[in-house]
Amino acid sequence: MKSITIKGSERESVGKAATRAARNAGMVPCVLYGGDQPVHFTAEEKGFKSLVYTPNVHTVVIDLNGKTYNAILQDIQFHPVNDKILHIDFYQLSDEKEITMEVPVKVIGNSKGVMAGGVLRLNQRKLKVRALPANLPDFVEADITNLEMGNKLYVTEVPTDNFKLLHPDNTVVAQVRISRAAMKAAQEAAKAAKEATKKKK
């Protein structure tokens, strides 16, 4: 999985006044959990754009004046009115410890059902995976090539490489639904066949 570096500075004071002052200065108060002690720090809000405002997921290298930590974003709080970032929680990664993340689904292939007039519906835009940090995928591939009209692709049919998918076996990842136009055409074809049968009699 690709990584993004966030540069910040450790916070000596974590009170409300210090937190307010940090936000007024365009900084985001953050906490890194998962180590021996929580690490409080601040970083510039603009530094989080490529981490927060994207459909992709990344691990994070937190650089606090040269001291680095590998982490993932665990929780984020936004202002209810202006959507500015108020606070972010990170979780420190360990090379030997599996973690759980939601990863985007990437559709590959050309569905036979779609080419025949069906409509592709992506039921799961993200899937929850569990893996060691080194094995976390950037995305999960959903191959829709063999989906005929009316078919479904279940999570059990999605290939996993060094990671687990944490979903029930009956979870539908994608499906090809019959479009209104295709349904109308099928109805008209059935009606025409019925009329042709009547004429023969």
Poorly predicted spans? none
Helix content: 10-25%
The largest β sheet comes out as: 6 strands, mixed, barrel
Mean pLDDT: 88
State the CATH class of the largest domain.
Answer: Mainly Beta
Shape: elongated
Strand order of the largest sheet: 1-3-2-6-5-4
Beta-strand percentage? 35-45%
What number of structural domains do the residues give? 2
Structural class: alpha+beta
Architecture overview:
The structure is a single chain. The protein has 201 residues and is α+β, with helices and mostly antiparallel strands. It has 2 domains: 3-93, Ribosomal Protein L25, Chain P, CATH 2.40.240; 100-184, RNA Polymerase Alpha Subunit, Chain A, domain 2 (Beta Complex). It is built from 4 helices and 13 strands. The chain has helices at residues 16-24, 49-52, 112-115, 180-200; strands at 3-10, 27-33, 39-44, 59-64, 67-78, 85-92, 99-108, 119-122, 126-131, 140-143, 152-154, 164-165, 172-177. The chain is elongated, with a radius of gyration of 25 Å.
